[in-house]
Amino acid sequence: MSERTSHAAHPDLQADCGSCFGLCCVALPFSRSSDFPVNKSAGTPCGNLQEDFRCGIHERLRDKGYSGCTVFDCFGAGQKVSQVTFEGVSWREEPDSARAMYEVFPVVRQLQELLKYTAQALDLPSARPAHRDLRRAYEQIDTLTRDTAQTLLAVDVDALRGEVNPLLLRASELARAAVPGRKKNHRGANLIGAKLSGAKLRGSSMRGALLIAADLSDADLRDADLIGADMRDTNLCGADLRGALFLTQPQLNAARGDARTKVPQPLKRPSHWAA
Ligand code: SF4
């Protein structure tokens, strides 16, 4: 990848549903809940999946009770498993390979998520002292994602995550050290339902924090590290998230926001947010 372009915006790390065999809609299970109107077991195609592997209710997912689908992101795993691991032969064309495809998909999804975080760290100019190690980790994981199904099924993802996490933490510390002011540490904090409207959290660590239904409206979250934070139903109306570290599209999609919420590039404002 070029030094001048955004690593995190690389097409390999974005879902390309047109090149995927609808793997998230087949391989993964879901249960009847506030996120899904019905039960579906792993390996069973969703009833809304069309012959062309497109979703038949894509524009009406929330109205139909499938909000769970709108907060999912494969980080590019779908097209990689479909086109690289299984060389463009779908589970419909080759039913004998279906099971392996469904098992490989969640593994590659986790690897792609790691790649995404690593790419985001590579986009941080102030984390430059960590870039050499991050680049090496990126190349190692990317090479792994292009290996055979057999190799992928044997990957110890937790061990790999344990190797990459210290690099991401170092990048976070370097980047946040460059931010002026005192930074708060809410790493792993239970902030479910917390009243944090207007809070000054610039450059803070919110790593793995539970922010479910927390009120972060009008909060200053610029340059805050939000890796792994649970942001389901978090109120981000008017919040400033520019420069937030390791924030992902699924986290934003799971939260609530409005037209005033400032979203970091290259993430997109979810279409279901208030105007
Ligand atoms: S509702 Fe659509 S997006 Fe959700 S699992 Fe079914 S086919 Fe996929």
From TrEMBL:
What is the superkingdom listed in this entry's lineage? Bacteria
Q: Where is this region: Disordered?
A: 256-275
Identify the Pfam families for this entry: Pentapeptide
Residue ranges annotated as coiled coil are none
Which Gene3D superfamilies does the record cross-reference, listed alphabetically? E3 ubiquitin-protein ligase SopA
What InterPro entries does its record include?
5peptide_repeat, Pentapeptide-BTB/POZ_domain
What PANTHER family does UniProt report for this protein, alphabetically? Answer: BTB_POZ DOMAIN-CONTAINING PROTEIN KCTD9, PENTAPEPTIDE REPEAT-CONTAINING PROTEIN
> By what name is this protein known?
Pentapeptide repeat-containing protein
